[in-house]
Write a structure and sequence with these properties.
The chain is an alpha/beta fold. It has 2 domains: 5-134, Rossmann fold, CATH 3.40.50.720; 141-254, Succinyl-CoA synthetase domains (Rossmann fold). It has 8 helices and 13 strands. The strands form 2 sheets. A 7-stranded mixed beta sheet has the order 3-4-2-1-5-6-7, sandwiched between helices. It is globular, with a radius of gyration of 17 Å.
Length: 255
């Protein structure tokens, strides 16, 4: 590969030592709270902080009222908030020095012109602060070797050898039960979402260089950097098998 794994934007994002979570609350039925609980249950060994304007305690941990009030700069920011709040929050994280983010929130280009404009804004903010992010409109990440799980479902299996990158968020979570029944375990799983920044090419390159990953599965609905994808794929398949499920190429698939 041209770049060592340490230079891939997913390397730091998949291996944070500290996380700030925005979108969890004292309401255990909220999606953000469910995903924050997944982080805790996964056994994440690093520091986990919560940001909430009103709730003082979330999942047994003290919450900060604002991003600017965090006691230290988190390696990774996770946002599960209404899309209208994402740009300002991403800007706040950029100001304090956070350089990796997962934007789980939906409501961007997949919803129309207003959402597209909002997505363009967060791209500009990320570039301004040299920040790399996954999403928006995704389920986040699984790294069983850290361990870390930001999805809505628990990971029941031990660290495995299959790496997955998916443009569909639900495909990642649906795969958990299917693979569990067959004794297949993830090494890493990456829900890419809208690919506003990090895309399937970055994910394939990362998984290709990831030592615990011995085989790769991709769920693809479209490729923006087609020529580079083929270039990276040719190099990766020399070292490990890659299985690609491509949907959306026909009218039926697009539905």
């Amino acid at each position: 590969m041209k770049n060592p794994i340490s230079k891939n934007p997913l390397h730091k994002l998949m291996n944070p030592k500290s996380i700030a979570f925005v979108g969890a609350s004292s309401n255990i039925f909220k999606m953000g709270t469910i995903q924050a609980l997944s982080v805790l249950k996964s056994g994440f060994p690093g520091e986990l902080s919560f940001v909430h304007p009103r709730d003082k305690i979330i999942l047994g941990k003290k919450a900060c009222p604002a991003i600017s009030k965090l006691p230290s700069v988190p390696d990774l920011a996770i946002l599960v908030v209404p899309s209208r709040l994402v740009p300002d929050m991403l800007e706040d994280f950029g100001k304090i020095g956070t350089r990796s983010a997962v934007v789980i929130s939906a409501g961007f280009k997949e919803t129309g012109e207003e959402g597209k404009s909002r997505e363009e804004r967060i791209i500009a903010i990320a570039k301004k602060y040299n920040m790399r992010f996954l999403g928006p409109n995704c389920m986040g990440i699984i790294n069983t070797h850290l361990p870390l799980n930001t999805t809505v479902l628990p990971v029941l299996d031990p660290p495995g050898r299959l790496g997955l990158a998916s443009q569909s968020g639900t495909y990642v979570t649906q795969s958990l039960s299917y693979l569990h029944k067959r004794g297949i375990c993830f090494s890493k799983a990456i829900s890419i979402g809208n690919e506003a920044d990090i895309d399937v090419v970055d994910a394939l390159e990362y998984l290709g260089e990831d030592d615990p990953t011995k085989a790769i599965a991709l769920y693809i609905e479209g490729i923006k950097r087609g020529r580079l994808f083929l270039e990276v794929a040719r190099k990766v398949v020399r070292k490990k098998p890659v299985i690609v499920q491509y949907v959306g190429g026909t009218e039926a698939g697009a539905r």
